[in-house]
């Protein structure tokens, strides 16, 4: 059985500078690890994370053979990770803020900045509940639980801008396990009727159908549904003000408050715009962590 810290803080506070020494530090702390290809995220050994171990002799043997091997942590027992991605076509930070405002997440155990500018948020596991890994590419958010792994600091990955390191940037207080299934459902609202899937005309019948659909959203799906509908209006060419004017009355009728509605529509415009603001990708991590940590 894994001896991972039940608080979900697997990363030792003071890691040695070399990957080989850091790997030993993880193993000594009781954190099962395995080697990954230097400069990459793929496992270096057969069966990958299934062979994660705390056996110091094995760990030293692996890193003696490949001193620059990256460090992988098997997730799902002791630690789970919400992976917030930053891609050229979009970023997961707007939805991360929505998850925080809606109460789906509250803080984190540890936060790691990834080489691409994203964030890995570490959480403790709930011993009574097993949660499998899943990915939501369109949301730019992934969950790493059972059947998954994460690359840990101080691993280095080669990016378009050269080698970049995974860095521990924050430690939270009193972290709680997250409900990954609830988050996945929140990010995947019940589909709208088929007639609403086409981009609605500006203020036309398509927009009216979206308004009717938002007004009928059930509790637990309302914020994600509003976000989905707002994205469709953005794709149809409506401005943020026009989207707000179209959807706010229906959203208010579902008991969402005005500030929440405005923030969700703003996030939709940032996420679904054809040319996302590059500053969002670069600065989203630090600003989001500052806001969430208050």
TrEMBL record:
Coiled coil regions in record: none
Domain Primase C-terminal, first and last residues per copy: 211-274
Pfam families listed in its UniProt record: Prim-Pol (PF09250)
Annotated stretches, region: Disordered: 272-294
Biased composition (Polar residues): 283-294
Domain DNA primase/polymerase bifunctional N-terminal: 23-180
Record-given protein name: Primase C terminal 1 (PriCT-1)
Originating species: Leucobacter chromiiresistens
């Amino acid at each position: 059985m894994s001896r991972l810290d039940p608080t979900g803080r697997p990363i030792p506070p003071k890691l040695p500078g070399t990957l080989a020494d850091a790997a030993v530090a993880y193993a000594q702390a009781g954190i099962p690890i395995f080697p990954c290809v230097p400069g990459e995220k793929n496992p270096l050994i057969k069966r990958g994370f299934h062979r994660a171990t705390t056996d110091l002799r094995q760990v030293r043997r692996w890193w003696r053979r490949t001193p620059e091997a990256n460090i992988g942590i098997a997730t799902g027992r002791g630690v789970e990770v919400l992976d917030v991605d930053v891609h050229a076509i979009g970023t997961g930070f707007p939805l991360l803020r929505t998850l925080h405002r809606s109460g789906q997440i509250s803080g984190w155990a540890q936060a790691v900045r990834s080489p691409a500018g994203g964030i890995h948020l570490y959480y403790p596991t709930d011993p009574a509940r097993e949660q499998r890994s899943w990915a939501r590419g369109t949301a730019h958010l992934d969950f790493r639980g059972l059947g998954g792994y994460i690359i840990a600091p101080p691993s280095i990955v080669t990016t378009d801008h050269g080698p970049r390191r995974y860095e521990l940037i924050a430690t939270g207080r009193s972290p709680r396990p997250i409900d990954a299934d609830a988050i996945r459902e929140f990010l995947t609202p019940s589909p709208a009727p088929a007639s609403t899937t086409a981009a609605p005309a500006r203020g036309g019948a398509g927009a009216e159908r979206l308004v009717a659909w938002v007004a009928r959203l059930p509790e637990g799906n309302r914020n994600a549904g509003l976000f989905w509908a707002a994205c469709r209006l953005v794709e149809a060419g409506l401005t943020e003000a026009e989207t707000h004017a179209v959807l706010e009355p229906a959203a208010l009728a579902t008991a969402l408050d005005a500030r929440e509605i405005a923030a969700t529509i703003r996030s939709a415009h940032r996420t679904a715009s054809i040319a996302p603001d590059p500053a969002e990708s670069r600065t989203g991590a630090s600003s989001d962590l500052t806001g969430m940590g208050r």
